[in-house]
């Protein structure tokens, strides 16, 4: 008998009919002879609504109370789902994060799981129950409720799969898989049968919002196969796992993009030890996450430094950087919000020359000017004008034959 962890997102549980639909799917998995642990998110927009409500009664709600409040969304979903299963004659029990043995640190609203005591879940499974766990929550060492950060029930699901040594973790939402690029931008994007953890992580860091990076990282560490599929149909989803199938022909698996990029350039920076630290340490302290960083080789001990941040962080970043640029004797500091990013991703690209050349050639033929280039072993990213991103994705998708079977 296999043990499977399934996670259902808020849109899959948004009303009574959808909860019953999910219950039917779970019952089917159970009847196929599996032990099933289910992790749920809060119904629909419950979490957003609860946050709004909290701020209506107090502009600065106390973090302990806020976490207890938010955790109730998942409790509602878990109990209703257990009731729906009972109505179908299935033995089932709902558990809060605390009852499921999920222990966390003290960081309210962004707690990390420190360990899991799976004994209660195992006991319920042995009794023949389907166990429904409220996602996104745990308790700290004082037994106070904590939450794991927005989207955190994916993390709950993978962590439980690891603790229970489950065969796999299946995540069901209204997104039915991982595509060769965002199908809303390019309708002919193809769904991938599978993708490696590393490819997926590169894609989420470079613009894909299909899964929570923290859940993929955890799945990779514990080597848990992670299926992304829809709760609204029975189409095959995408399996995120260690190795992609051997017969994969396309070395480029997908194209990620990001429309929210701002660029900061500091011109005429004296090239001496410590200058980069002077700029980037205060940025990190201000909570600005810096992405691509490019520094030119210096001429006569003077260099230029360019980096990108999210467009929404530009103002905060400029506030930090401008006075520092001045203090280190730089000539000028320019912030520019109109950029985007396009990346090709694929593990097969490592050790195979020519991919960068083909990408640059394709972009140049489409008249797309490249501002900055960065790479990892399995990704090449170009910073380009935001208005050119859609065209860039389209021509690259074509050039790397991603519309063909992969
Ligand atoms: N309900 C929480 C949120 O909306 C957690 C989750 O959905 O995973 O962020
Ligand atoms: Mg949600």
Given the C-alpha coordinates, what overall shape results?
Answer: globular
User: With helices defined by DSSP (H or I, 4 residues minimum), what is the helix count?
Assistant: 11
Largest sheet: 8 strands, mixed
- Largest sheet: spatial strand order: 3-6-2-1-9-11-12-10
Question: What features would you highlight for this structure?
Answer:
Carbamate kinase; binds magnesium ion; alpha/beta; binds aspartic acid; 406 residues; VC0802-like; 2 domains
Describe the protein:
This protein is of the alpha/beta class and 406 residues long. It is 34% helix and 27% strand. It has eleven helices and 18 strands. The strands form four sheets. An eight-stranded mixed sheet has the order 3-6-2-1-9-11-12-10, sandwiched between helices. The longest helix has 25 residues. The chain is globular and about 75 Å long. The model has no long low-confidence stretch (mean pLDDT 94). The structure holds aspartic acid (ASP) and magnesium ion (MG). The site of aspartic acid (ASP) has 12 residues, from helix 5.
Short description:
By secondary structure, the protein is of the alpha/beta class. It has helices at residues 16-31, 46-57, 63-87, 119-126, 153-163, 197-205, 213-222, 275-285, 314-327, 355-365, 389-399; strands spanning 3-8, 35-40, 92-95, 102-104, 113-116, 130-134, 137-139, 145-147, 168-173, 194-196, 226-230, 238-241, 254-270, 290-295, 302-310, 332-345, 372-376, 379-385.
